[in-house]
Amino acid sequence: MMKGRSLLRWAGLLVAVALVSVWGHEAQSSKTEEASAASYADVVTIDVIGKMGNTELPAVTYRHDLHTEAMKKLNKDCSACHKTQDGTMSLKFMRTEDGSAEELKELYHSNCFACHAEQAAAGNNTGPQEGECRACHNPNPADTSAWKAVGMDKSLHYRHIAAKTIKVAGQDVNCGACHHIYDAASKKAAWKKGEEDSCRACHKETPTPVAEGSADMKPALNDAAHAACVTCHVKTTGDTGPVTCAGCHTAEAQKQYKVVKDVPRLKRGQPDAALIAADDLKKAKLPAVAFNHLAHEGALDNCRSCHHAKIAACTDCHTVAGKKEGNFVQLEQAMHAVKAQASCIGCHNEAKTDVSCAGCHGAMPSNAASEQSCAACHATGAPKGDELAAMSKEQKQAAAAALVAARPAKMVVYAEEDIPEIVEIGAISDKYAASKMPHRKIVKTMIASVAGSKMAATFHTVPGTFCQGCHHNSPVSKTPPKCQSCHGKPFETAKGDRPGLKAAYHQQCMGCHAAMKLEKPKATACTECHAVREN
């Protein structure tokens, strides 16, 4: 019998039972008081029979960690609910393989009720008794799931790499403890150095065949992850990772994870810079994009931010025409989708929600594009068409590196003396005196807030680009026209419902302050910007 720490370690395995999906609510006990609405990370749903289409009642709700603690108090371990086959604990309840719906129903009822009856006879608080069907099969349980997905970011991944070495196939290596590929000859999964990929590249939301036409199935991601992660945590001695539902799947637990700030680069033979071009060069209208792979590695949490399914070149899945591997999302869509976080434009738009950028970009359309912004990626002088087709891999990487190195290191802005120090806004002053805006101070503060941004340096390549945040539709100039030249009349519907001057000023200024989370001046404090006119 496993005791103490071993029990808690093995407890985590129970959550990955093939019959359980991690959504659901708590089953109510006939021996305990009705709980007030609460959320738990260990709430799971037992619906294996329902998935067979052979149930007349709702799925069963189940508190996993709660039962684990109960077993510990009774000096019992995981074997009370799980069988072992070939030295490995089955993740299924009281069996190693599924049977028929009737067999499973009998298996659950006989074992669960027997345990509950035994505890009731001993005078202990316990679960529902035989005949109390709705206590388990409750369509509206009182408690809710607080389950929160947990990911493998760069910090957590590095901690696993740097952890105590694990032997795989006789070799001292950690990668093979998690990463493997299916070997058709041996019909087994095995680690192959250099071919490590994302778990999601093979394991989907539901079980899938290991190969086309094969009867052997790859487990679903949920089952594969729990079987691999929790089993390793249980078997590895020393300070290992969580083994309970709440240990991984709560916001509180995740906040406690140790963070490695400067994670060493994971070298997989990837280039520092690469050219991204259409797979069909004859249809490419723009030059190839020089992608700074090294900079993006440092800025993003993990490889899946871009390689969201398989670690491969973008055009392996996303082509000009679209292909099955990329869910028929064409290359242009994959790179330019405004709201898709995995696309270039979508990711950049997400970055622009930062308070240092949001003051200007918050008022701009998310799909706004210009010749200048396109040229920031599709640079003049970058190879395309036949020229690109004739280049070797090494030549492409060299061209990409040269283009990346040629990009400006910092944002280009006008000289300080060219930025007006004070701008007096008084075209419609009536009740209030003209507002004297400390223009230069505001501009310098905003410039300083993005001074270290490589993205700002790459896209703000013309001195007047930064000014466009306020002077949004005027020509790029040191002396842009006054606001009233466009906003002279209120709400010109023929011109896109353009606001009048007063509304334009307040919308622009207050909108910027709100986006940048500036506490002063408050939107309702008129006199902080406008002195009351003296009659």
Number of strands: 17
Percent helix, as a range, is: 25-40%
Mean of residue pLDDT values: 85
Strand order, main sheet: write it out: 1-3-4
- Rg over CA atoms, rounded to whole Å, is 31 Å
Describe the structure.
The chain has 535 residues and is of the alpha+beta class. It has 20 helices and 17 strands. The strands form eight sheets. Strands 1-3-4 form a three-stranded antiparallel β-sheet. Helix 1 runs antiparallel to helix 2 (64-73) and helix 14 (355-361) packs antiparallel against helix 20 (501-515). The longest helix has 21 residues, at 101-121. It is globular, with a radius of gyration of 31 Å.
Helices and strands, with pairings:
Layout (H helix, E strand, L loop, with lengths): L3 H8 L8 E2 L17 E2 L2 E4 L13 E4 H10 L10 E2 L2 E2 L11 H21 L11 H4 L7 E2 L8 H8 L5 E2 L2 E2 L2 H4 L2 E3 L4 E3 L17 E2 L7 E2 L2 H15 L9 H4 L2 H5 L17 E4 L12 E4 H7 L14 H4 L13 H6 L7 H8 L3 H7 L9 H7 L7 H5 L3 H13 L17 E3 L9 E3 L1 H11 L4 H6 L41 H15 L20
Parallel strand pairs: 2-7
Antiparallel strand pairs: 1-3, 3-4, 5-6, 8-9, 10-11, 12-13, 14-15, 16-17
